[in-house]
Amino acid sequence: MVSEVLSGLLVKILESKGKTRDFVLREFDKKLFRAIVENNPKRRPRRVQEYKYFMLMSMLWSVLRNIDRGIISHEYLKRAVQTLVNGALLGNKEQEDANRKFKEQYGTAPPAFVVISPTMACNLHCKGCYAASHSGARFNLSYSIVKRILQEIHDFWGARFAVISGGEPMMYKSDGKTILDIFNEFSDMFFLMYTNGTLIDEEKARRMAALGNITPAISVEGYEKETDERRGKGVYKKVLQAFENLRKYGVPFGVSITATRHNAELLIEPEFYDFYFDEQGISYMWIFQYMPIGRGIDTQLMPTPEQRLKMLERWEVCLKEERRFVADFWNSGIVSDGCIAYGRPGGYLYIDWNGNIMPCVFVPYYVDNIKEIFAAGKTINDALFSEFFKKGREWQLRYGYEYGAQPGNWFMPCSIRDHYDNFKRHIASMVKPEDENAKVALEDPSYHKAMVEYDEKYKKLSEKLWREKILKN
Length: 473
Ligand code: SF4
Fold this sequence. Notes:
The chain contains 18 helices and 14 strands. The chain is an alpha/beta fold. A 10-stranded mixed β-sheet has the order 9-8-7-6-5-2-1-10-11-13. Strands 3-4 form a two-stranded antiparallel sheet. Strand 3 and strand 4 form a beta hairpin. It binds iron/sulfur cluster. Iron/sulfur cluster binds next to loops.
């Protein structure tokens, strides 16, 4: 009921202008605050709920600013209201039915989405790529497998949102189809696609606008110098061209940044956000703190614990003062009630180009493979109940997900990054590494030591903040 009222108001906000919009926006703001912070149905700490409220409002503000600037088209908006607002964000009757059936069968709610990397191929060769991709890589999921995965989560989980990652998704080809054909086929779902942006020419941007159910998150590492240093000379210019093409056809887009020890200070500067949000017209920014997996593992590349805290402060300013939609993994774990991996209710799982099913993009270990599961006459639901996934979810529960008023420290939510010793001892037994790097990481004592030392140091810094800032209030 509450979501129906909010949904109605949201549609009005997106479709109206001037004073009418200001009025509806105020109503929406009040109702959203009441629903999330005051009613607080799961009895989370009030401060946790406030972060969620600010996150949603900053998302709305970031989109509205770009509508007003004329860089999100009305045609796109109309379609996005149907898919993103009514489907992915607020849910509809069909989804409720799917959710209820899943609960009856499995005694728990389903995940909300998947991340699929349909191809390992990439036209770039970035230093430290988590997927270790390159142009010669041939691993691909077939079109029929990708289609079946999406159909199953659509029907069994009521999912209306999926994330496409890489390799480079714009390089994907199977049976004469491309990734845009997938988006076309699932027109009642909304897609977020991580891409290096270099292949988004005018024609692709125009097609994305017509589809209206896709937003690209384009990778940068900072400005031109930082981006070209990691991604290759001339890449940043192509990225700026992709921004221009997307603005021209009215497709909302964002950027995705890997935060390392070297660029963390840049990510604390206000000018960085002014440049991307105000000058370039992004609607959102994802920051992924470097996780030592994939090509060229280096634990010294992670932002230091002190830098991580500074980034947390900066993230708060973005949400609360500048009303810019920024998500910082892992500082933003608080808005999702901690780790969302292992197919948690409302969370997700990750499937790569080999079909291996992993808890998360940053956890390169698996036990099941989707192609084998389908060949055995099973469905994606069966993958949710492996010992590996169940252990991960048990940890999430113990750590706080269902503890309501006194959850564990969600400033360090990550099952692998922030609790490495526990991950290795209690969650990752009997798993298969995704690649040679993941195998080395699991067996290397110096990797273990570096990860645990980091965790201990960050725990000392963040626990105090968690207790004083979140639990005390
Ligand atoms: S495992 Fe870590 S990166 Fe993955 S969802 Fe959980 S918190 Fe996020």
